[in-house]
Design goal:
5 strands, globular, alpha+beta, 50% helix, 16% strand, 224 residues
Length: 224
């Protein structure tokens, strides 16, 4: 009987240590993302593990744990600056969605989720079955862009190497990934929680910005 209690106690202690390590790693990875401009969760996770000397896989946090730690870090250390960066990018994203209206565009990523900072690009999904349509549109409007490719998970079994374009506008970086038209029916899986990505159309983003403005007015002192 004593051996059994000791075994249970040891097991609970091990679980507690693992949880503590996961939390430490999540917060260190979040700090690296916020301060170092790292956008890739896996890279931030690996660097955090190396810095803290925690190398067992059981202690590695999930991406959604790091994202939550990132939100906490931004609230604690970035004050009003980070929400201002998000708002600026959302306003620019709305103009970009209107510019790309013919491609059924959607805003995705940290700008939509509210975790963007001063280094974050505006991530867009454009939809077309013509691989030349988006670069042709950019050329016609005199927008220099660099080609790129991004691997997306369409579901649990399928992946897609989607073409994309990097460009600058309004002193901000934009990344436009081009998906087939049938990609409108279901969003690719998020790298954070492996669920379909949250996406916003121009109309949905206008609503989000209007809600932000209302909250801003409600939070101001009387007479301002």
């Amino acid at each position: 009987m004593p051996d059994s209690r000791q075994h249970v106690h040891a097991h609970l202690h091990a679980q507690s240590r693992t949880r503590e390590r996961r939390q430490r790693l999540a917060h260190e990875a979040a700090r690296l993302m916020a301060e170092g401009g790292i956008r890739d969760f896996q890279m931030a996770k690996r660097k955090a593990a190396q810095r803290l000397g925690i190398l067992d896989d059981a202690s590695l946090p999930r991406n959604h744990e790091i994202e939550e730690a990132l939100r906490q870090y931004q609230r604690l250390f970035l004050g009003d600056r980070q929400p201002a960066e998000v708002h600026r990018r959302r306003e620019a994203a709305l103009r970009a969605l209107e510019f790309f209206a013919g491609f059924q565009p959607r805003l995705v990523g940290p700008v939509l989720e509210g975790t963007a900072d001063a280094r974050s690009p505006v991530d867009l999904h454009l939809h077309s079955d013509d691989p030349d349509a988006v670069p042709r549109w950019l050329v016609e409007h005199g927008i220099p862009a660099q080609p790129r490719s991004r691997r997306l998970r369409l579901d649990r079994e399928r992946e897609l190497d989607a073409p994309g374009w990097l460009f600058n506008a309004e002193e901000l970086a934009f990344e436009a990934t081009v998906l087939p038209l049938d990609g409108l029916r279901q969003a690719p899986l998020s790298g954070v929680d492996e669920r379909p990505m949250r996406r916003a159309s121009a109309a949905q983003l206008r609503t989000l910005l209007a809600e932000e403005e209302i909250r801003g007015h409600e939070g101001r002192p009387p007479g301002r």
